[in-house]
Amino acid sequence: MKPLRILIADDHELFRDGIRSLLQPHEGWEICGEVSTGVEAVAKAKELIPDIVILDIAMPDLNGADAARRIRIASKNTEVLILSMHYSDQLIREIVNAGATGYVLKSDSELDLLVAVETLAKHKPFFTSQAREVIQGEFSLGVPVTKIPTSLRKRVTSREREVLQLLAGGMSSKDVASSLGISVKTAESHRSNIMHKLDIHNISELVRYAVRNQIIEA
């Protein structure tokens, strides 16, 4: 039997250490890598093709939802388990739409995390108890959990969410353009679209939105 290969992505070293200490003793499980940013998580997942990526939702450079989407595109057999500090119905919709099949709160028990990994290893979804009502309420029995009605999808696009994360992190439009390899005019256009779609009028509101939706950490 090949070992279950797990990649851990969290920007807090102590939390990564804790996850590794919990999972490593499990027979047949192997921690194949650890990273601290969303961009690193995508790159390492492409390189290693792990069976499971355990991914913090609030990651530097690229938030967990967008990292999950890129990982699933690069490796369709890699399952993504999202870790989050706080619960949000909207976040559930976001990560499921991104292709993640697991969601566990950092306040959940160690057993929940172990069961989540075991469940995802069988290519079955596992969501923290608070999220199950949302999943059951919005998905018909027999319909894959990765399918969300279009009406429930977030209005902000994946690229716009990247721009939002960088703006909320304190970057100017010029910095955003440089970071994403786009023109300043395109960055400013994204910023304008984000403000319009979310009915946000200044950077302070943008930051509050990003924190509330765990796109950045408080």
Please write out the topology:
Layout: E1 4-9, H1 13-23, E2 29-35, H2 38-48, E3 52-56, H3 64-74, E4 79-84, H4 89-97, E5 102-105, H5 110-121, E6 126-127, H6 129-138, H7 158-168, H8 173-180, H9 184-198, H10 203-212
Parallel strand pairs: 1-2, 1-3, 3-4, 4-5, 5-6
Helix pairs in contact: 2-3, 7-9, 7-10, 8-9
Characterization of this structure:
By secondary structure, the protein is α/β, with parallel strands linked by helices. Helix content is 50%, strand content 14%. The chain has ten helices and six strands; from the N terminus they run E-H-E-H-E-H-E-H-E-H-E-H-H-H-H-H. It has helices spanning 13-23, 38-48, 64-74, 89-97, 110-121, 129-138, 158-168, 173-180, 184-198, 203-212; strands at residues 4-9, 29-35, 52-56, 79-84, 102-105, 126-127. Strands 2-1-3-4-5-6 form a six-stranded parallel beta sheet, with helices on both faces. Helix 5 links the parallel strand 5 and strand 6 (126-127). The N and C termini lie far apart (43 Å).
Compute the separation of the termini in Å.
43 Å
Strand and helix order: EHEHEHEHEHEHHHHH
Rg measurement, Å? 17 Å
Q: Note the total helix count.
A: 10
Low-confidence stretches: 139-153
Strand content: 5-15%
